[in-house]
Amino acid sequence: MRSSFVGQTSYKTVCKKCKQLSASSQTMHDFQVLELEVKDAGGKKKGAQATLQTSLETLLEEELLEGDNKYFCQHCDSRQDAARRTEINSLPQHLILQLKRFRYDLKTFERKKIKANFSFPLVVDMAPYLAPDGQATRLGKRVAGRRDQGGDLYEAESIILHKGKSAAQGHYIALVRRKEDGLWWQFDDQTVTCVGSDLSTTSSFAKDEQREGSLTSTQVYIIVYGRRGARDSGSDAAESAELDMGILPPTTRKRVAELLQDYRVSKDTYRAKRDAFLERLHRKRESVRKFFEVSEGAYDANLAFCVSGEKLQSWSTTLDGCESVDMAGFRCLHGMVDPRRIEELKVLGPEAFEILMETAPVKPVLGANMLCVSCLEDVFRKELTELAMERRNNDVLVEFLEAPQSPLRELQMNGTSGENFYVSRRWLQRWMRGSGLRDAMQASPTADLVCMCGNRISPDPRAHRDLEEISSTLWAYFRGACTYFGVPAPEIGRNVEVCLKCSTAMLPQRYLTSSRSIAKAEKKVAEALRDIATKSPLILKSRDSYCVVPIKWYYEWKKLLAEKATAQTMIESIAKCLEEVKSHCKGDAALWSTPHVAFVKAQLRRNAWHQSLHESNLLILSAPMWKVLRNVAGTRDNSEVELQLVMSKDLAPQVVTKPQLSQGGEAEAAAGGPLSRVWVFGTFEGEGKTAIEVDVEGTTTVADLRGILEAGKHKPRGSITGMFHCQRLLPEQRPLPSLGLAQGDVLCFETSKDGESSSEDAQEEKNFEGTRLTAF
After folding, report:
1. What is the SS3 string spanning 584-639?
2. pLDDT, tens only, 284-294
3. Strand ranges (E), 6-129
4. pLDDT band of 147, cuts 50, 70, 90
């Protein structure tokens, strides 16, 4: 790698007074690319042509360091005038020269392209440009003295062109010369062409009449020269390894010999594969060239054949892209050529078809005279029918738009009695724009309105906003068109109602119809539940309206947030909560046998209160939050339990609900079914104050529940001294269902260590600091 592409330069600085070199002059700098100026560096004639010789001389010319730019000489110990120049100390086997075609214009502050003509030889002698001692250090002692054998002569191997008018745009093309035959090949993206041995015949180059063996170009950007007679780096490495084998230990020498043998085998294998590939490529190119030559000639149409255009393109542009051509899909039911796919076929003469069959067999063979007449008649008959329907559609559209008294618009204009139908407003607008009947019938007029069951209106509010009323005459025309095109068109009349089954099943789907909606739903649902379950307690005021739900949903939602539940699960939970409230408002089920709420005086606020959540069996929500929950669940039902506070100085607020919450006795069980689950709030070991969910049975007593807690995974901090429900001490031997508990109610417990406050409880105690007062 280094000997192939890396050379060395140095910067020589000579003091004008003492004639001594600077210390840094001995430092060598590696380079892979030499950057050369494009404009004329001689300055003898204005507008003189730039050449490779003048560009190299510009690179190596001496620069004076004087005036404010004087050089500090260490030998003179003062600033002195000096001369500085660049020297090329060694050259690689492959020399890369890059022309500075682009410059920054300080007037316009833009990069501009230099379009000057540049002259360069195809063979260049680099000896005049090497440092005086560069011949001996060029590639080391092993190549010293090769200058007499052409060691400094370089031949152009590849050229890169930049085609474009400016630095901001353009296209790169590479030209590479093969060493075997000296032919130049042009690589233009995926197109590879041979341009011959003389580049001056192409449009990008011209002969330099003043310099023999040189070319000129305004597009040349990079030139790669190779040392004449140089072998590849692998051969040099192998040779040097063989020459140095004698100095190696026997074991190392044996291992190196094995590696060299493996290398030779790999190289021979690669060359064999390369030669086989090039041979296949040559044969394929000859076949394609001959194919296109014979395709241009005349042939008998009765002897022609049909071939897939897509397969034919793949065969002609790729080496292994098409091994066979399957034409079975182009046959109709009668075994002939299907006229519906005739635009996808290409017709080939017998000679071209024979060349194709040699490398890519065509099965089955379809002649150009095998077009199916029966299918062609069906195609023409269908097109004539659709043409007549388009004409009829234009007449109906003109009548609908320009005749207000037409039966097509009768019900819409004056609202007379009779059967009436609904279609999608967006679909009707597309039809009215005159896009054509076929385009309009790509979807049903009622596809956006029907539910998943297919016979009622969708519960999605967007479907209700899209309803458009039309007359029965116009609907009969649309239904007939849908029948012809095979598009289902469910009828939606005036008496069709919203589907109750889909109304329940599709609640979460309103926000889960696209990836963008999913992200929106997850964000909106999580924010709503986070506002309820994790933020500071709601400040209650007498002038505001509130809604209430069972307290169990506070703990349910807090659990979902901790588990990072999906948006679907959160929406379903909110929908179940709203359904319970709806049942309570309709009198189907009672959510509270003994409603109870406890309040805490808000600090630093006059006549403002908080709810003590763990001592209540209902959760108070603000009216805006209740609206957010309804929107998230997608329900259109307005059922709610409204709550208002009646404030009095230094007394607990009085609660007024609508509808009135029932208040039964202790023995009255909740209407939500047998008691099977409760929440228990208290101080747990290592967790602080939190609530956990506990499964219970109908015979579970308060003492049994205490034993379950002390033996469970979450252990109370200290021994339990008492259990409470809504600030009421529960008897130890009473079964839980007989205490008037509702499904999911919260129970609190006190322990022997509750007086020892911990850091986990600090925020909880701060939020609920004050005297607790009871409203019920």
Report:
1. HHCCCCCCCCCCCCEEEECCCCCCCEEECHHHCCEEEEEHHHHHHHHHHHCCCCCC
2. 888 888 988 88
3. 7-15, 29-31, 33-36, 50-51, 63-65, 71-73, 78-80, 82-90, 94-99, 102-105, 110-113, 118-121, 123-125
4. very low
* DSSP calls for 254-294: HHHHHHHHHHHHHHHHHHHHHHHHHHHHHHHHHHHHHHHHH
Q: Give per-residue pLDDT as tens, 660-695.
A: 765 444 434 443 456 777 888 888 887 788 888 888
Which residues are within 8 A (CB) of 394 and not within 5 positions of it... i.e. 6 or more apart? 434
Cα 188 to chain centroid, rounded? 30
Query: Which one has a higher pLDDT value, 718 or 55?
Result: 55
Closest by Cα among 729, 682, 730 to 710: 682
Q: Is the dihedral of CA 198, 204, 208, 209 positive or negative?
A: positive
Confidence of residue 500 (pLDDT cuts 50, 70, 90): low
Burial label, 103 (beta-carbon count in 10 A; 0-12, 13-18, 19+): middle
Q: Which two tokens mark 424?
A: 């999608």
Give the residue with greater pLDDT, 229 vs 249.
Answer: 249
Q: What is the largest CA-CA distance in the chain?
A: 119
Q: Is 739 left (phi over 0), alpha (psi -120 to 50) or beta?
A: alpha
Instruction: For residue 306, list its beta bridge partners.
Output: 347, 366
What pLDDT score was predicted for residue 141? 36
d(CA 87, CA 513) in angstroms, rounded, equals: 70
C-alpha 168, offset from chain centre: 28
DSSP 8-state symbol, 668: P
Helices 515-533/552-563 angle, 10° precision: 130
Question: Is-contact 349 294, C-beta < 8 A?
Answer: yes
What CA–CA distance (Å, rounded) separates 728 from 749?
11
- What b/e sequence results for 550-574 when a residue is b if at least 16 CB atoms lie within 10 Å of its CB, and e otherwise? bbbbbbbbbbbbeeebbbbebbebb
- Please list, residue by residue across 241-273, b when 16 or more beta carbons sit within 10 angstroms of its beta carbon and e when fewer do: eeeeeeeeeeeeeeeeeeeeeeeeeeeeeeeee
- Residue 586 reports pLDDT greater than 50: yes
**Residue 362, C-beta contacts closer than 8 angstroms, at least 6 positions apart:** 305, 307, 324, 325, 327, 353, 356
Q: Are 471 and 410 in contact (CB under 8 A)?
A: yes
Q: Match 């379009």 to its residue by tokens.
A: 115
Look up tokens 């458009």; give the residue.
468
Q: Which pLDDT score, from 0 to 100, does residue 44 have? A: 47
Residue 574: per-residue pLDDT: 83
- What pLDDT, in 10s, does the model give residues 347-376? 998 899 998 888 889 989 999 889 999 999
Compute CA 54 distance to the chain's CA centroid, rounded to the nearest angstrom. 51
Per-residue pLDDT reduced to its tens digit, 414-442: 444 457 788 888 888 888 887 788 888 88
Report d(CA 422, CA 454) in Å as an integer.
14
Calculate mean pLDDT across residues 313-322.
83
Q: What is the DSSP letter of 298?
A: -
Cβ contact 476:531 at 8 Å: no
Interhelix angle for 567-585 vs 623-633, to 10°?
110
At 750, which helix (H) or strand (E)?
strand 746-751
pLDDT in tens, 544-561: 788 888 888 888 888 888
* Contact call for residues 740 and 774 (beta carbons, < 8 A): no
